[in-house]
Amino acid sequence: xxxxxxxxxxxxxxxxxxxxxxxxxxxxxxKTKIExxxxxxxxxTSQFYKEVSGYHFAILYHTKKRGRINITNxxxxxxxxxxxxxxxxxxxxxVAVVVDDLESSDHREKEIIINGQxxxxxxxxxxxxxxxxxxxxxxxxxxxxxxxxxxxxxxxLRKYIKKSKGRTFIFKRIKDKxxxxxxxxxxxxxxxxxxxxxxxxxxxxxx
Length: 207
Description:
- This protein is an alpha/beta fold.
- It has a single domain (about 1-170), classed as P-loop containing nucleotide triphosphate hydrolases (Rossmann fold, 3-Layer(aba) Sandwich), CATH 3.40.50.300.
- Helices cover about 50% and strands about 20% of the residues.
- The chain has helices at about 20-25, 45-50, 80-90, 105-115, 120-125, 130-135, 140-145, 150-195, and strands at about 1-10, 30-40, 55-65, 95-100, 125-130.
- Strands 2-1-3-4-5 form a five-stranded parallel β-sheet.
- α2 runs parallel beside α3 (about 80-90).
- The radius of gyration is 23 Å and the shape is globular.
- The N and C termini lie far apart (about 75 Å).
């Protein structure tokens, strides 16, 4: 069984996204085991960078219960540095953004959010929107997945996470190759500098 470790990163309480954690871990996957761990974001960025290491995939979660959709690129945005770090560490295709508790979650609303906050598209492979209505149902209804809209969104998120496992190997090879090239260029520059400097002369060599 494939095992994928997923970090849900947010400044919001775990209680807000327990429904998402529950589905990903227990009800949405059979052949793939998804382990979901909450990573609470504070103003201590170094601590966040440390805690988020060791995962295969990251979900940046934001709820409009805070009052605004101020994720990035706007005044008082909450996740500029964090989103950039996740993309740099895992690769853009290993990062998803979930925006929760919206009034609307259609394609038009998604375009408005992404166009107004372009770093979402730059640093995350997918953005998933959920409304209060999507979750406005009994626990039994959610378990049975009768809501087709909710089901299709969660299946899309699950599929995206599962695909990330294969992309991890490719991203690692690219990153390793870049590191090798960087090391090669540094070494080449040092050798060139030494050759340009020549063997060097002392006062005694002039006699």
